[in-house]
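Run log, item B.
One chain of 471 residues. Sequence copied directly from the ordering sheet:
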Amino acid sequence: MCLALAILFVFMRIGVASAEWTTSPTQNLPLCTAQNEQHFPVLVADGKDGAIVAWSDARNANRDIYAQRVSATGDVLWKPDGIPICELPSSQSWPLIVGDTQGGAILVWGDTRHGNQDSYAQRIDADGNKRWGAEGVPVCTHPTLQDDVNAVADGKGGVIVVWEDWRNENQDIYAQRIDSTGKPLWETNGVPVYRGEGDQYDPVLIADGEGGAIFAWWDISTPDWNIFAQRLSADGTPLWNAGTDTEIAPVPVCVAVGNQGAPVAADDGNGGVFFVWSDYRNDPQFYTRAQLYAQHMTAEGEALWEKDGIPVCELQVNQQQPHCISDGTGGFIVAWWDERNIFADLYAQRIDANGKALWGGEDVDLQNGIPICTEAGVQRLPQLVSIGKAGVIVYWLDYREDFGDSTEDAIYAQRLDADGNPLWEIDGIPVCSAPKEQISPQAVSTGLDAAIIVWSDARGADYDIYIQRIP
């Protein structure tokens, strides 16, 4: 009996690579070091303080989609270097990932198996088993280009996907919903979120809590670029209408003079949404200096703040790459980089449901955002993950050591409490400061005031996937 139990234990451990998180930012945990390049990692929490990670992988000489699961303690739970999600002879790239409410994940990616760029999806369970056939299910296979895909969990075990689509000879926004069994719930190849004049770009979306979603994009069907939004119901019907009774038109988020672009969105916790975007209304001639503006919209598409939004930061300096998340109490937190000190530094602000800035007190300068990192060099791509109680972890690409001829970036992070106080070292702690380049970091909160961050790393012979838990 003892021998039988011992053999059973050995078989249970097959395929599990024992490891642990390192405290060294120059070491980190290698998740995939297969030959050729691995890029664009994404991840989602596995419900047990670990994560499921997916990436685009060139080990087979073309790009495929691979995935791996890592435990809360840093154990790699599936086959070393990951399991194939889709490895057809064609190219698969730019994966997206959302949770499936069952401890597994739904992956969406761009796919050229039919020659042109389509999009496909696959669901995997907590053990890495494919649930939607061997090669996934089609999201959209219309014989025109689909690009700039984005996705969100629908809250019912499925996924809602949005993309830019050229089927009408200009760039429109289309979307599809797929249920937990892999069945498309809307029209084959998707329904139009907006099919209008000119081109529409960079669609973003949040789930509406009822099986549908709220979308936004920037639109160049007018002389300058504006931000518009639409909500689709659980069956794909447009719910917001700024047009006539016979024409469904999206609602304007911002149509101010000058260009507006790069919208991001956060749930307000009451069925509505916060939008933040880069806005050139104060530089309408040269478009070299954007400010950040925001708008709060209800579930019915009504704007609650002043027309065309309120400024997040009133300083007349270039502000870019906003990222925002809900603060869990009806407001939102936003981070960005700006050039108030010549080189790009990172700042953040918390804004309540009424549009009041909560971080900075009576200090006029801090009302324009609290500093996250003002170290030497530039900082880019700030992103946020919630850790509860209105606190966040901010992480970013950091070039403070980039003084030579080659790019020597790193990944840093900072934790803020609900009042915006930094809880770690000033200017952040290093997540990864290994030699060479680290790019495209993505993170997910894991409970216990921690986060797991994954990225593509050039410290080896080519780009590999590394991962780290902080703190």
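Observations after the first pass:
- The mean pLDDT is 92.
- The first helix runs from residue 2 to 13.
Flagged for discussion on Thursday.
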